[in-house]
Amino acid sequence: SLNKKGYHYRNWNTDDPTPHGETYAQLYKSIPFLIAIKNNEASGIFFDNHFESHFDMGKENSNYYYFGAKDGNLDYYFIYGPEVSKVVNEYTNLTGKTPLPQLWTLGYQQCRWSYAPEQRALEIAKTFREKNIPCDTIYLDIDYMDDFRVFTWDNKKFKNPKAFTDELKSMGFKVVTIIDPGVKVDKGYKIYDEGLKNGYFATDKDGMVYKNTVWPGDSVFPDFMNSQVRKWWGNNQKIMFNLGIAGIWNDMNEPASFNGPLPEDIVFNNDGTLVTHKEIHNVYGHMMDKATYEGIKEATNKRPFVVKRACYAGTQKYSTVWTGDNQSTWEHLRMSLPMLMNIGLSGMAFCGTDVGGFGFDCTGELLSRWMQVGTFTPLFRNHSTIGSREQEPWAFDEITEEINKKYIKLRYKFIPYLYDMMHKCEKTAPIIRPLLYNYQNDKKTYEINDEFMFGDNVLVSPVVEQGARQKLVYLPKGNSWIDYWIGEEFEGGQYIIKDAPLDICPIYIKTMSIISNGEDVNYIGEKDTECLNLSIYLCDKKGEGKYIAYNDDGESFDYKNGRFNEYEFIFDLNDNLNIKMNKNIGYENKYKSIEFTLHNFKNNKKVLFNENEVKLNNNKFKVNL
Ligand code: GLC
To answer: Is the CB of 453 under 6 A from ligand 1?
Structure first.
């Protein structure tokens, strides 16, 4: 939940496969950062200590909170707001921002343990195209590997990996493969031999290479504290990228182990300083991501896409995070909302859950509701475990398929807005935020766990209860809101009951705001978009608004050297509606025109664009650039 008062957390990255409940005090991620609001003033404490640490928010005694660690330095930062948004911004100034991702990573992603052999993966991809359900990415889970040896392929299941990724590419798909840290103990296996020869694996206190059991059986653990090892691991990414892989899914990097936990005294070499597992456990995954990110960047010169499970403060710099092995239960759908909001407040803007739930069997109704949430999470990935009921958008009945298709298409409509928000958040903010982030003066927002802001302008209040066909929605005070489905305006500062049949997820757009819309496509980049399509949501009264529509090549780092466009819109509604645009062009002009659609517009007003009156057609008008 958002409010941690009365709880105690142990920060020690943990892979616990049993179904997580609210009683769990330690999770996959350890981010020793606390935000408090007292008398409407927010402040934060970031305790930069990656030993096992504890935060007790008045569980021991309701008169005080405390934090502490088993070892290490008492090294903490106190951050004063008074706005929560400022605390988060300062915290990410310290630990790092979520970088702008490649555009395709914002599309819908399909995963399962496992799409193997290759015929199965191709069949899934073809079904998306036949059914006209958009999808950008297919994942390969551990079964693509040769007996779980990382950086290898099972050539019986995948005869020619390059031909396979090429075929998917020709259909508009990207392929992301899983990589685990555990390296199979196997003489003659290149990765193992190289690592062993160079002393790249963690050892026990007597200097013997330490072994535990993971998917490949006996396995050893790369010493990611060592920059040589990171370089080596980073270089190994080329093995995958040369075969046409577009992103890496780093899993099991708590590190998880099946034969008891790694002992505290396992030794790592932090570039000359010997450190123990006790000290570096919580940053092991973080350093693996750093290696992966840097390796992919060097290999491709594109913005690396790394998805990962175990995190420490700052992991947002290198990777996208998912919440780990959830279950196909209503409880886990419900819990995913505050979890994602908390991840957002912890500086990790690019986040998501396994849509539909990983363990256990999903149902059509649960998947429909989960897809509605996934539409508005930056990482939109459906994933399920081996042996569970299939969970692709069409795996249930026709009604479920229709609903899933409707929401996946809606996601693509919101992608330009999401990309604009990701660009903005590279400088400042999370995408998924609790309402209090934008509406701190409205105390009623503080404990809302079942709705969230999707960027600055969209409020989503999904249904997360089985059988519910209505939703109690709170609209925060400070502006009015437009019901996305019926176009009606509601004042902020009130609760409303929204009818929400199975195909309706309550969505509200902030008035005097703009949403940048995407086209109807099967995948990102399918069509060359020449018209910037903007919806302006107006209000009954007077008001003003501002929006920046951003674009660049969607993949490289060239935007950092000025190869991007920003179209800034400033508009005010008074006796007339006045819209002004300022262009900041540093890149070839992608758009030839802009089409505006006015929502909630009262027709007796004139519309001026850059001081010239324009004629409306069905509340729309177009300007050429
Ligand atoms: C872990 C991951 C899960 C993956 C599985 C097999 O449980 O969290 O997503 O499917 O391992 O690789």
So the answer is: no
